[in-house]
Design goal:
It is a single chain. This protein is an alpha+beta fold. The protein has two domains: about 10-135, Roll (Ubiquitin-like (UB roll)), CATH 3.10.20.70; about 145-165 and about 265-490, Glutamine synthetase/guanido kinase, catalytic domain (Creatine Kinase, Chain A, domain 2), CATH 3.30.590.10. About 35% of the residues lie in helices and about 20% in strands. The strands form four sheets. Strands 10, 11, 12, 13, 14, 15, 16, 18, 19 and 20 form a ten-stranded mixed β-sheet that branches. Strands 1, 2, 3, 6, 7 and 8 form a six-stranded mixed β-sheet that branches. A three-stranded antiparallel β-sheet has the order 4-5-9, covered by helices on one side. The longest helix has about 30 residues, at about 430-460. The two termini are about 35 Å apart.
């Protein structure tokens, strides 16, 4: 470290390997505290993570010396300044770290003072009121409660595997793509994807795939499937690591759904299946597509209720600029085997019972994944409860169909704008069942404000009188307007 640069982050992976210290997989609070107490590790701070209502990461740090008391009695904070939390007159909330989510970050931090070095860890948790009751605005708690309802369908595991797409960009003020690569072809920064995955592996977050995506400067890294709550935690860690490594390389990463017009946007294709212990409940070797009747009920519920929950899976004005025809994003509510033009796809990768699953292609990576997964699971469980079998199954490219053919086959569109999704959410009692009145009211008010601000900004613009040209100009304006806060925040 003779040539260290103050304030930089340095990796020191070898020391962990020599000491055989785990970065993850802690059993309980005592297990965590025992590891943190190892002086050679020099873990000085724990970064407590939770998302706001829209999925933006919020965090605060506690000194390692305070961790034992945090496990015992929690750490209080002011919830009134966090979107989706509390009003100022009732703002006190308490964060209780979840020891099972504790992971040591594989970085060695070095401050401005020469020789001052330390390590951090990261931890998720549950948020409670001062009286100890669960906070109704805690999205991790909402997912936990939704998962508890699986037992009514005979399941005890909801497994999720995410495909995470993102862009690497030049800067935040005037973002530009950094390469002209394409799908599985060319491009730059493959070494950055590799570095991200190696760091994630050390932290107990295995991946199974990475590649350059279709659009210029667009990348994808896919996760090995895991329990829904664990996958939600992993997704936020992933977003943090990708953005950090990008900054270490002098560039920026963004999970904004559509940072540039006229090229593909970024999705969070979500693979899912219900299990009972070691049995995949979605698999039936004699069923159509190898799916069980329960799986068809689940996907019918998901397809039916998806428009009502899209403020959780696609929360931004920018989200709906991605969901337009011609850019490999779904716009219609239908199901098919291997067909990527449909909203739900049944991956056609053989008849392996463990691999049989559904893939929802509409969500984007900017969302609050805890609320999104709660909405997906609740929709599927509702389909099972109602014994639905009304999903529209197609065997051809929806984009090549005429409007008349789609109407004849009852293929309905997804909401095509934030205001459409907002209006459907306002009318939905189902959304309130999932996330509760507190979050529903805040979410609706927040999106109403987003739309009002957009309409006011749009009114100041002058567009062409030619309708085709106007649509192009409007799409470009919508991208430029809606991406501003998302480039850095997501």
């Amino acid at each position: 470290m003779d040539n260290y640069e103050p304030g930089r982050t340095y990796w020191n992976i070898e020391q962990f390997h020599r000491m055989k210290v785990p970065f993850f997989g802690f059993r309980d609070a005592q297990d965590v505290l025992k590891t943190v107490a190892i002086s050679e590790l020099n873990i000085r701070f724990i970064r407590c993570f939770f998302p706001d209502i829209n999925g933006m990461i919020n965090d605060f740090f506690i000194p390692a010396a305070e961790l034992a008391s945090a496990f015992a009695t929690g750490k209080g904070f002011d919830g009134s300044s966090v979107k989706g939390m509390m009003r100022i007159e009732e703002s006190d909330l308490i964060f209780f770290p979840d020891p099972s989510s504790f992971r040591i970050l594989p970085f060695l931090y070095e401050g401005k003072t020469k020789g001052l070095m330390w390590r951090n860890a990261i931890c998720f948790g549950y948020i409670r009121h001062p009286d100890g009751s669960p906070f109704e605005g805690d999205s991790r708690t909402i997912l936990k409660h939704t998962l508890e309802k699986m037992e009514h369908a005979g399941a005890n595991h909801f497994y999720i595997g995410n495909e995470m797409e993102f862009f690497l960009i030049s800067d935040l003020d005037d973002p530009r793509p950094l390469d002209q690569g394409g799908y599985f072809r060319g491009g730059s920064y493959g070494d950055l994807r590799s570095e991200v995955q190696l760091l994630l592996e050390i932290m107990g977050i295995p991946t199974e795939y990475d590649h350059h995506e279709v659009a210029a400067s667009q990348h994808e890294i896919d996760f090995v499937f895991d329990e829904a709550r664990v996958m939600a935690d992993k997704t936020l860690v992933f977003r943090y690591i990708v953005k950090k490594i990008a900054r270490e390389n002098g560039i920026y990463a963004t999970f904004a759904p559509k940072p540039f017009p006229w090229i593909n946007g970024s999705g969070m294709h979500t693979h899912m299946s219900l299990w009972q212990d070691t049995t995949n409940l979605f698999f039936d070797p004699d069923g159509e597509f190898g799916l069980s009747s329960l799986a068809f009920q689940f996907l019918a519920g998901l397809l039916h209720y998806l428009p009502e929950i899209m403020l959780t899976t696609n929360p931004w004005l920018n989200s709906y600029e991605r969901l337009i025809p011609g850019f490999e994003a779904p716009t219609m509510r239908a199901v098919d085997l291997g067909n990527r033009s449909t909203c739900i796809r049944i991956p056609a990768y053989g008849e392996n019972s463990r691999a049989k699953r559904l893939e929802l292609r509409s969500p984007d990576p900017s969302c609050n994944i805890y609320l999104a997964l709660a909405g997906m699971l609740a929709s599927g469980l509702k389909g099972i409860e109602e014994k639905r079998h009304d999903a529209v199954i197609v065997d051809s490219n929806i984009y090549a169909m005429s409007a008349q053919e789609r109407h004849k086959r009852n293929i309905q569109p997804l909401p095509g704008s934030l205001i459409e999704a907002l209006n459907l959410a306002k009318q939905s009692s189902f959304l309130r069942e999932i996330i509760g009145d507190h979050l529903t009211d805040i979410l609706l008010a927040d999106k109403e404000n987003d739309w009002s601000n957009y309409v006011a900004a749009r009114a100041q613009q002058v567009f062409s009188e030619d309708q085709e040209k106007k649509q192009r100009e409007l799409h470009e304006f919508n991208i430029l307007y809606s991406r501003k806060e998302l480039l850095a925040a997501t």
